[in-house]
Amino acid sequence: MKFLLRLAAAIDVLNAAIGRWMTWLILCCTLISALAATLRYGFDWGSNALLEAQWFMFGLVFLFCAAWTLQVGGHVRIDILYARLRPVVRLWIDILGSLLFLLPVCLLIAFDSWNFFLIAYRTGEGSPNPGGLLWWPLKLAIPVAFSLLSLQGISEIIKNVAALTGHRALPEFRGGH
After folding, report:
1. Residue 106: which residues within 8 A CB-CB, separation 6 or more?
2. pTM here?
3. What are 108-157's pLDDT values in tens digits?
4. How many CB atoms sit inside 10 A of residue 119's CB?
5. How far is 117 from 140, CA to CA, in rounded Å?
6. How many CA atoms lie within 13 A of 56 on its CB side?
7. Could you report the per-residue pLDDT of 87-116, keeping only the tens digit for each?
8. Is 114:143 a contact under the CB 8 Å cutoff?
9. Which of 39, 50, 63, 129 has the fewest CB atoms nearer than 10 Å to its CB?
10. At what angle do helices 136-164 and 87-97 cross, to 10 degrees?
11. Contact 28, 61 (CB under 8 A)
12. Nearest one of 158, 109, 166, 160 to 10, comparing CA atoms
């Protein structure tokens, strides 16, 4: 169990670091948005690349912060019911939910989206808009992000099983996010 807990801790560190780094894209997105608006309204000059960069950055934040959000208990659940359950019941719900829903869906999306990335990469898929960006790099982010979310799901399962077996303290309820 010690090895598995060290593995879970390494996954947690990785996803927290990626999540924190990705939050800087929100600032970049805001600055690019301000630049695009200034150029459009101040100088009557627009850029599809700037608009697409904003969309891409928002998508990257959403994708790559999902694992970190899972780690800190920020995903949506019915807290009014969940909070009233005993900690052991909450652990079982989290374990079964991860095994039956989270991991299968994440792995399916990661596997399936890899083919979409490969097609986009091989064809050099880019924006149909003049001056737009390449799209295949963003399509690579989808399987990578869902793989990271799968890893975080595994980390959460390990930590919850460790709590059930007495190798770790029962977690506090992290509701109200």
Report:
1. 146, 147, 149, 150, 153
2. 0.84
3. 999 999 999 999 999 998 888 888 888 898 999 999 999 999 999 999 99
4. 12
5. 5
6. 19
7. 888 889 889 989 999 999 999 999 999 999
8. yes
9. 129
10. 140
11. no
12. 158
Which position has the token pair 């799209």? 135
The two tokens of residue 40 are 């459009």
Distance CA 59, CA 140 (A): 12
Residue 49 corresponds to which tokens in the numbers above? Answer: 């690349």
Task: Count the residues in the chain.
Answer: 177
Compute the half-sphere exposure of residue 155: CA atoms within 13 Å on the CB side of its CA.
Answer: 23
Backbone angles phi, psi at 126, to 5 degrees: -140, 180
